[in-house]
Amino acid sequence: KAVGIKGSELPTVIDATAGLGRDAFVLASIGCQVRLVERHPVVFLLLQDGLNRAYQDEEIGEMLQQNLRLLNVHHINELDPNSDYADVVYLDPMYPHKQKSALVKKEMRVFQHLVGADLDADELKQMLSREMKQKKAIVHCLILDILLDMPLKLT
């Protein structure tokens, strides 16, 4: 819903922080054309290997080959805004670990340990609004971060 799927209208999407490709897989399985960008070199190779294997799958391989493509760039700023147009740019950065009582799932803890936090998430958001010619940008962010960025209005 967030990417703008309305009836048979399926947007083209650039997943600018692809990770292991879960969000992109969901969008591709719905029918969206998704291009993936992953900045971390180890995660890029893991994603590339996983996609190559998935492309060979008898049930979903053909659909994935048509709808899901890993771009050979390691940062969204390497994209050409004129030729790499997408209706939606999807950004889901890895936020720094916060102290809380519930632990993040084990898989995500391992992933966070490997990749670390996206310390330049704000820079990515600004670059999206400044340079990319998309209709829509979807940015997953923490509610507290949004509240802290909002100007305080006293009435």
Automatic annotation (TrEMBL):
<protein>
    <recommendedName>
        <fullName>SAM-dependent methyltransferase</fullName>
    </recommendedName>
</protein>
<dbReference type="InterPro" id="IPR007536">
    <property type="entry name" value="16SrRNA_methylTrfase_J"/>
</dbReference>
<dbReference type="InterPro" id="IPR029063">
    <property type="entry name" value="SAM-dependent_MTases_sf"/>
</dbReference>
<dbReference type="Pfam" id="PF04445">
    <property type="entry name" value="SAM_MT"/>
</dbReference>
<dbReference type="GO" id="GO:0008990">
    <property type="term" value="F:rRNA (guanine-N2-)-methyltransferase activity"/>
</dbReference>
